[in-house]
Structures are given as C-alpha cells and as structure tokens.
TrEMBL record:
<dbReference type="InterPro" id="IPR011663">
    <property type="entry name" value="UTRA"/>
</dbReference>
<keyword id="KW-0805">Transcription regulation</keyword>
<dbReference type="GO" id="GO:0045892">
    <property type="term" value="P:negative regulation of DNA-templated transcription"/>
</dbReference>
<feature type="domain" description="HTH gntR-type">
    <location>
        <begin position="20"/>
        <end position="88"/>
    </location>
</feature>
<dbReference type="GO" id="GO:0003700">
    <property type="term" value="F:DNA-binding transcription factor activity"/>
</dbReference>
<dbReference type="InterPro" id="IPR000524">
    <property type="entry name" value="Tscrpt_reg_HTH_GntR"/>
</dbReference>
<dbReference type="InterPro" id="IPR036388">
    <property type="entry name" value="WH-like_DNA-bd_sf"/>
</dbReference>
<dbReference type="InterPro" id="IPR050679">
    <property type="entry name" value="Bact_HTH_transcr_reg"/>
</dbReference>
<dbReference type="GO" id="GO:0003677">
    <property type="term" value="F:DNA binding"/>
</dbReference>
<dbReference type="InterPro" id="IPR036390">
    <property type="entry name" value="WH_DNA-bd_sf"/>
</dbReference>
<keyword id="KW-0804">Transcription</keyword>
<dbReference type="Pfam" id="PF00392">
    <property type="entry name" value="GntR"/>
</dbReference>
<protein>
    <submittedName>
        <fullName>GntR family transcriptional regulator</fullName>
    </submittedName>
</protein>
<keyword id="KW-0238">DNA-binding</keyword>
<dbReference type="Pfam" id="PF07702">
    <property type="entry name" value="UTRA"/>
</dbReference>
<dbReference type="InterPro" id="IPR028978">
    <property type="entry name" value="Chorismate_lyase_/UTRA_dom_sf"/>
</dbReference>
Length: 252
C-alpha cells in the first residue's frame, strides 16, 4: 500500500513525463538554486515534506535528491536542526555558446582537449540523407573538452581526410573549428548548420563529464558543407547541461 501511494504521488508530478529519474531532476533544480545563490551557504533548506509537496513526489524521492547533493558536498545534515547549504558548486558552470562560426571558434580557443580515440583509416560518419554528400574518407576523433581543468563536452567528430592532411599534426593537437577557419582560403565552408536536443547522460558520458547517470545533457549535431554540399566536418557533441549557456540572436 505504501509503495502504491508513492507511485501515485510521483505519477502526478509535473516532472514525471521526462525519462530522467525524478530525483535527478529535483537534484538538478536544487543545485541550480544553490549555484544561483538563491540558497546561501549556511541556509536551512525546506524539509523533505515541503520538497515532496512542492514537486508532487514521494518523500523518499525528495530524500534521494537531497542525499545526492549531500554526497556532492553541497548540503549537510545538522542533527536536531535540518539540512543546510554548505557551499555553492565550485565548478566553472558557464560555457557561453553563440551562433556564429567565429564566436564558436573563439570559445574552443579558450578550452583544452584530450583525445579519447583516433581513427585515420576509412572512418565514415552515419548521417541523415539530407545532411549533405559524404566524401570518400574521413578521419574520426573523439575528444573530451575541458574548461579550467573541468570536463564540459564529449565530441565525436569526422573531418574529411583531404582537409586533415593539410595540417595533420595541428588537427591532432588543437581544436578543429579554429583551424578550419584559419584555413579558409584553402578550405571553403559554404554552409554550417547545427541542431540541439536535450537528453540524459548514459553511464559512459556521465563518467567522462563527472556527472550523475541520467543528468540532463545537451546533444548538438554540427555539419559544415562546401560549395558542392560535400560534408567537410561532422560532429556529435554532448555538453553538460548545467554548464552551457546558449545565446541566440533573434531576427527582427
């Protein structure tokens, strides 16, 4: 009977439609309140009953969210007093993503990367039919990108082999997009397109980005085409959802 009650309350939560576990969603909301200094260090947070009522979940679900933040060092239980904020997350949790190639390149110039896998032998991206025309061969690189020493993105990219061969050592060691823009006389990017969706971190992504499994991540697909609609660069990128700020210019 108790379990049935929990299920009914969780099912009524406005968060229940997401595939991400409820306690992870709640933990992410509470973490945001701490990071935005809505809850200051030393402040007493609402009781589990109050949190359960706010999010329309079972008390055990609220407890799981609070316990997760306690394990991260953001909250601590004080016997006879309640749960208090210990500190804001020290992570550099803003990576500004803009919508021009130049600003995107500038952002990557300020970050570092580590190669996870590298394949120079006949790699081919799996792309949608309308994404562009595939070239004859691509170099595949999977990289973990860092800002201020903390991982914020996992990038799986494919670079046309003939483009890679123009500067192979630099492409191995440095961010690809800034290099492509510096090669604009030899490598002409005629069109660039990206799409974004929100998903949940799988176990491997969570390990690499140092987040919990199921935490929201931004999934970006990025394509650069030449004048013949041939794909020069194709990437699948997973960003920490809590560290990325997108700035989009609205047309008037």
């Amino acid at each position: 009977m108790v379990n049935s009650t929990f299920k009914t309350r969780d099912a009524s939560s406005p968060l229940a439609s997401s595939p991400i576990p409820l306690y992870l969603q709640i933990a992410d909301i509470l973490r945001g309140r701490i990071n935005r200094r809505e809850w200051l260090a030393g402040a007493l947070i609402p009781t589990l009953e109050a949190l359960a009522s706010e999010f329309k979940v079972a008390r055990v679900t609220a407890r799981q969210a609070v316990q997760l933040l306690a394990s991260e060092g953001l909250l601590a239980s004080r016997r006879g007093y309640g749960t208090v904020v210990t500190k804001a997350d020290d992570a550099p949790n803003i990576v500004v993503m803009k919508t021009s190639l130049e600003s995107l390149a500038a952002m990557y110039e300020t970050t570092s990367a580590k190669i996870l896998t590298f394949d120079e032998s006949h790699a081919m991206p799996s792309v949608a039919a309308d994404a562009g025309k595939l070239g004859s061969n691509y170099v595949h690189m999977r990289r973990l990108h860092f800002t201020k020493g903390k991982p914020y993105a996992v990038i799986s990219l494919y670079l046309l082999q003939e483009v890679f061969q123009r500067s192979p050592e630099e492409f191995r060691l440095r961010a690809v997009i800034p290099l492509l823009l510096r090669m604009k006389r030899a490598v002409r990017i005629e069109r660039a397109h990206q799409t974004m969706s929100i998903g949940a971190a799988d176990p491997e992504t969570a390990r690499l980005l140092e987040i919990s499994v199921g935490t929201p991540v931004a999934h970006v697909t990025r394509v650069f085409l030449d004048r013949q609609d041939r794909i020069l660069y194709y990437a699948e990128v997973l960003y920490r959802g809590d560290w990325v700020k997108w700035e989009i210019e609205l047309q008037t």
